[in-house]
Amino acid sequence: MTKTQQNHPLAKIIESRIAIIDGAMGTTIRTYGMKEADIRGERFKDSTKDLLNNGDLFSLTQPKMICDIHRRFLEAGADILETNTFGATSITQSEFFVNDPREHGGRKDPEFYQKIIDDAMLGDLAWEINQTSAQQCREWADRVANQTGRQRFVAGAIGPLTVSLSNSPDADDAGFRVVTFDQVKTAYKQQVRALIAGGVDVLLVETIFDSLNAKAALVAIREVFDEDGFAAKGTELPIMISAAVGRGGETLISAQTTEAFWNAVQHVRPLSVGLNCSLGPNLMYPFLSELAEKADVAISCYPNAGLPNPLSETGFDLGPPDMARYLSEFADAGLINIAGGCCGNTPEHIAAIARALEGKAPRKFEVRA
């Protein structure tokens, strides 16, 4: 943790109590019964591809709903509100607005993605989603903070992309990559700048299943801090890092163990490192325990509400009391400083978690200079 991060208000909070991060935007959106026409609105009514799975777009077309979700998570007890920007890069947005060359005998490759990076419409759209979502979170975080007298924080959510830098999609060419490191970094730099312009407090590189993609995001953040004068002024934003792991505790594509993942990112000196999404809390426990033993920064944990279950109301097995019980056990074991929920976790889940963790001591760790 850098000196700037040590002095950040959120850093002070996680030393004194367990901070609560919000739940699943996508899961909660589904409870509003939105249809294809709702996400399109007037602006995107003529789009040729389905947009309903492009949840980030709702920040532009259904802002009242998105703000209502932010309000509900804050009133449930969230200290940290994530922006609705999980897929808000030009690379990921291209999946919804650019025809796939593979449908016509072509392939996605660095030449294809360079056109994506250079596409002004996609770049402008990605910027608008990030800045708008950050502003929406900022407005509601400040509004609820003023009402309750408790400061709330906005985390700029930086997701993992729909492409991999670690693996080749071509079984006959192990060295082939659809995209280059510099292209991924460029897309992330635009996202980072837009999130900062929108007023976020921290930058959250999350749901990491490809460590090299995460590296590109972290390099992008570093370059933005240096190029835009944050480093010189000592105003760099804190960075939170969170990985998704499989049943063996490995990042899903790059297959790094939990310890190896921490070794790969610890040079950033993040405010926190942790695990999210992937497994339910019971299966995540041993890997979180290992990370808490190795890392000398705060530990975050916001798991899925169990495993997927299409017959469940939320699409996942665990209800609010279940998540509250599991995360309470994590706290009792001294493993966490930040807790919440990922897929399947509604405001009701977060409220139950917040109640269960109230008054419980956060994990103790020694900050390395």
Brief description of this entry?
The chain is α/β, with parallel strands linked by helices and 369 residues long. It has helices at residues 3-6, 9-16, 25-30, 36-40, 58-61, 63-76, 90-97, 110-118, 120-148, 181-198, 211-227, 230-233, 258-265, 281-294, 320-332, 347-357; strands at residues 19-20, 80-82, 153-158, 202-208, 239-243, 272-277, 298-303, 338-339. Helix content is 47%, strand content 10%.
Task: Report on the architecture of this protein.
The protein is an alpha/beta fold. It is 47% helix and 10% strand. The chain has one domain: Homocysteine-binding-like domain (TIM Barrel). It has 16 helices and 8 strands. The protein has an 8-stranded parallel β-sheet with strand order 1-8-7-6-5-4-3-2. Helix 9 runs parallel beside helix 10. The termini are close together.
